[in-house]
């Protein structure tokens, strides 16, 4: 029983770190909430405690505002779901994963990035979009870090000069197990449709046009 409770606590700490990261979209946050409540219910089952009845949003049902019939149906459904989950957890394939392995796979890894300078003769404003990219899946695995660069060759916000830093958080075991992971920088030119056009044609200013791209293997 101690090993079972230890495994559940490791799962809760792992998911708590993801909640505290503050970088999850609403759909992943909702799914993570379900996983947290499921771990809590499993821990209560192992310790022979009462089963907590919840609604569809994983909130505890108020017995003073819920009918006896609804409470009974919700309790029966929760008991069936919990029993199915406990059976999956005790399968031979799942039992091979120890708590130490789960803790080692905790998605609390981060990547620190510091941009020293950007040298590219454009003559107009530019935007640098930096993100982690998986070339095998051909998709980005993080949000973009945006740097706005002035036409004078310095950041538009001079307070960020020599202080362009970002941390890519919430990198889990799946990200570390990727065969290849690149840090990709997209260069977007902001200005005229054609650099040969005069500045007097204001109808064609402020346009975002792709200019270049660069990549560095991060893993």
From TrEMBL:
The Dedicator of cytokinesis N-terminal domain extends over 2-199
Pfam families associated with the record:
DOCK_N
- State the superkingdom: Eukaryota
Recorded GO cellular component terms are: cytoplasm; plasma membrane
Biological process (GO) annotations held by this record are:
cell migration; myoblast fusion; small GTPase-mediated signal transduction
Q: Which InterPro entries match?
A: DOCK, DOCK_N, DOCK_N_sub1
Q: Name one GO molecular function term.
A: guanyl-nucleotide exchange factor activity
Protein name as annotated: DOCK2 protein
